[in-house]
Amino acid sequence: MNPANAAAGVPVPIGHLILFLVMAAWVAFFAILTITRRNPVTAVMSLVATFFGLAAIYAALSAHFLAVIQVLVYAGAIMVLFIFVVMILNREEVAPLALRPMRLLGVAAGVYLTVTFTQVVLNDYPMNRAPVAVSETYGTVASVGDMLFREFLYPFEAISLLLLVAIVGGVVVSRSHQKEVAAQRAADYRKQVAELATRDYPGAQEELPAPGGHH
Amino acid sequence: MDIPTAYYLLLSFVLFLIGTAGVLLRRNALIVLMAIELQLNGGNLALLAFARELRDQKGHVFAFLVIALAAAEAAVGLAILVGLFRSRESVNLDDATMMKR
């Protein structure tokens, strides 16, 4: 990137800036609420608020299609899934936070990320650099869909296959094993009874009726 | 909106950091999954900001694929949580030590 090509030093319109800062503060506030609440239901609701704020930010970036998808898929489908599981698994936490030596590695990663961001990204994209203008159709459903179904048809099909596998995997992993456990216990019990019978009455196995049979 | 790209990148960075903090610090597996969603959203925001900067819609397609990936991840992750809860009666990550030692 060559920042000299862009018109640097153009002041940001104050109204747009205030609007953006309100949305950014909304997103950051609810994101922090998501990871600090003890009650998972509150956390899910904060996450929904975060996703709505992000949809507004996407719209501000003229990513209209992605803003709609964000609300439909994230705030809609994924969050409903979360709510259902939270309702199933709701348990009180004793000590929600854990800070162990291993996790200090994460703090180091965060510091590294901060340094990289301020040194590299803000160097290439300074805060006062004017944004590029995009065309009217940029980010609309029509133009993104056109690209999705022509240039990115194979990735699109691959991701639909991935979703199918995830559905089947989810059903298999979370399926209840109670019936199989009960069947196994019954089989063990019958085996134990047969062993006791052969031990206490040796030579009488032939006279024992077959289980379930009528003689 | 005439907001420079750096503002969006800063927000995506903050969002990713909050998500990382949630993944590293929380014990409740549900909250950890939500924090992973926050990280994915931070990445998505960066993709869209760079897509506008470069006037290229490929970033939008990638963000769309990331959202589908997040849906798959949430489905499988929550299924694993339900399975963990069935065997351990807990969603505390410190209790999930079956494969330790």
What do you see in this structure?
The complex is a heterodimer of chains A (215) and B (101). Chain A is mainly α. Chain A has two domains: 3-137, Four Helix Bundle (Hemerythrin (Met), subunit A) (Up-down Bundle), CATH 1.20.120; 152-204, no CATH class. Chain A is built from seven helices and no strands. The N and C termini of chain A lie far apart (90 Å). Residues 1-7 of chain A have low confidence and may be disordered. Chain B is an all-alpha fold. Chain B is elongated and about 50 Å long. Chain B has a single domain (5-89), classed as Helix Hairpins (Orthogonal Bundle), CATH 1.10.287.3510. The longest helix of chain B is centred in the last third of the chain and has 31 residues, at 58-88. Helix content of chain B is 76%, strand content 0%. At the A-B interface, helix 1, helix 2, helix 3, helix 4 and helix 5 of A face helix 1, helix 2 and helix 3 of B.
CATH topology of chain B: Helix Hairpins
Name the shape of chain A in a single word.
elongated
Give the helix tally of chain B.
3
Terminal CA distance of chain A reads 90 Å
Oligomer: heterodimer
Mean pLDDT of chain A: 82
Quickly count the domains of chain B.
1
Briefly note the structural class of the backbone of chain B: mainly alpha
Main β-sheet description of chain B: none
CATH architecture of chain B: Orthogonal Bundle
CATH class assignment of chain B: Mainly Alpha
| Range of helix content of chain A | 55-70%
Top CATH class of the largest domain in chain A: Mainly Alpha
Fraction in beta strands of chain A: under 5%
Annotated CATH topology of the largest domain in chain A: Four Helix Bundle (Hemerythrin (Met), subunit A)
- Percentage beta strand of chain B: under 5%
Low-confidence segments of chain A, given as residue ranges, are 1-7
Residue share in helix of chain B = over 70%
